[in-house]
Design goal:
alpha/beta, three-stranded mixed β-sheet, globular, 152 residues, CBS-domain, four-stranded mixed β-sheet, 28% strand
Amino acid sequence: MQFAHEIMDRDFLRVPLDMAVGELAELLLKHNADGACVVEGERLIGVVTTMDLVFQEKQVHLPSFITLMELVIPLGGERARKELEKVTGGTVAEIMSKDPGTVDWDAPLSDVATLMVEKHYTLVPVLKGDHLQGVIGKRDLLRAAYAARGLA
């Protein structure tokens, strides 16, 4: 059985909350990376991925409204507000995923795979206690799974 710390990338990208979205895009492209950990000092604050950048290019769906006895009630208002903030965000803080799913240092790969699939995660930070140790991306997991079968 393999564990998270055996396949994690220890040389991963860390970005600050105030980094501009354009600067983030350049960094991810330069490093051919799917995402980065958003940190404040050494503390993990969130994760930002290429999908967060792609999200900015999507068509915005404004909330629908219903009228009931002279009241105008928005439907899906909170979701629409969050979507609009993310689409128009100019900094990492505005587009990142807060409270990202993480795994422990000694988590089995099956747990990492389950988390990635069920939550549609691109990047999973690996923690040892409260300390960020590395990240596991889809390619890392794929490489490990097929290497264990003698195929990679």
